[in-house]
Amino acid sequence: MSRSLAELAELVADTNLDPFNRMCHAASLTNQAHAATIELARSCALRGEESLEDLGRVLAMSPDDVGRLIGWEQLRLIDID
Fold it and tell me: Distance between CA atoms of 6 and 57, rounded to whole angstroms?
């Protein structure tokens, strides 16, 4: 069952849960947040809204690292009309 980011955040903050369970929810929250960030960065790059340098400043990464993260080399091979 996939939970929303908000649901996971609530579970992480629930002090009535076992610490191990909270940790597992925190890991799921982190993974989903990373995936969402990558998709949004990819969308911005494809639309030309932000440069890899701009995205890198926001993500605290080099432009090259951002390019690898979003699969820039593969995206450049796609014929976009």
Answer: 26
Residue 15: is its pLDDT beyond 60?
yes
Q: What is the pTM of this model?
A: 0.72
CB distance 12 to 22 below 8 Å = yes
Closest Cα to residue 80, out of 54, 51, 57, 47?
Answer: 47
Token pair recorded at residue 63? 């432009």
Please say whether the beta carbons of 66 and 52 come within 8 A.
yes
**How confident is the model over 34-72, as pLDDT tens digits?**
999 999 998 988 888 888 899 999 899 998 998 888 888
